[in-house]
Amino acid sequence: MKAAVITFPGSNCDRDLAVAFEAVGAEVVHVWHKDTDLPKVDVVGIPGGFSFGDYLRCGAIAARSPIAPALAAHVERGGYALGICNGFQILTETGLLPGALMRNTGLKYICKQVKLRVETSDSVFTSGYGKGSVVTVPIAHHDGNYTADAETLAALRDQDRIAFTYAENPNGAMEDIAGILSANRRVLGMMPHPERAMDPVLGSGDGRVMFEGLLGRMALA
Amino acid sequence: MKARVHVMLKDGVLDPQGEAVRHALGTLGFAGVDSVRQGKVIELDLAATDKAAAETEVRQMCEKLLANTVIEKYSVEIV
After folding, report:
1. What is this structure's pTM?
2. Which of A60, A117, A163, B42 would disulfide-bridge A56, Cβ 3.0–4.6 Å?
3. Residue A6 is inside which H or E element, if any?
4. Per-residue tens of pLDDT for chain B, all 79 residues
5. Looking at CA atoms only, how far is residue B61 from chain A in angstroms?
C-alpha cells in the first residue's frame, strides 16, 4: 500500500499519521500543501493540527490550498482518504464530506481518551472492528461539534454512513457523531485520533485495526 | 472601493459562543438579554470601481471562502 500524507502550515499530526501508516507496512510519501499533484497512491491522509492557525474557520484556508484540487480528483477517481481531526474539518470545508465542525458546546479544548461505538463495519476503515464494538481513541480538539441539517443527518443515517459515535458526547456533536463516511464509503473523516492509538503502552492500541484494515484491502487490490 | 461582509450563523444553528456571552452579560447584571449571536465582519479594500461588479465579485468570495454556507449566512455592503 502506498499512502500520501499532506502537510499544511500548522499541521502537527502529519508525522504521527505517517508513522501509523508505516507501522502496518505502507510506503508513505509526504506532500506539501503547495504541491499541485499527488503521486499515485492508494490512500491520502489529511492530518490533524491547526492548519493556517485555524484562521477564518478551522480548515477553511487549507481547503483552498494548491493541493486541494488534486485531493478532490483523487477522491473523485475512487481513491481512499482519511481525514483526522483538522483533516476532518478540511474534508468538510472542501465539500468532500457533508456538514461542518463547530466550536465545542462547552467552549473548551478537550484532550482525553474517549470511548467510541463503531456504527458500521461496512468500510475498509471499520470492517476490522465489527458493528457495535466499543473502542478507545483519544480526542484533542476545540471545534469537534459535528453539525449538519436534518436532511444530511437523515441521509447519513439511512445510508449507514455514520462510522463512529461517542459513547459519551464530549462536544455537543449532533447524534453523537465522531466520524462519517462519504457516499462511496472510501473517505472517512473523524475527530478522534486513531494514529495516536497504535500501541497499548501509549494508552490504547485500538486505532491500529483501522490502519491494518486499510492495508489488508490495498494488498488485495 | 470598500466592501464590508457580515457573516452570521444561520438561524437555527446553535451558537455556543453567543450563548456564553449572553450568560456573562447576565452575570454582569444585564437582565433581559434573550439571546446573543456572534458573527464576523470582514472589510475588503477593492481595486474595482463599478459598484455592481464589485458586489458580484464579493458575493463569489463569500460563496467560495469567506462564509461556510453549510452553517453560515452572509450579507455584502459596498461602502
Report:
1. 0.94
2. A60
3. strand A2-7
4. 999 999 999 998 989 889 999 999 999 999 999 999 999 999 999 999 999 999 999 999 999 999 999 999 999 999 9
5. 12
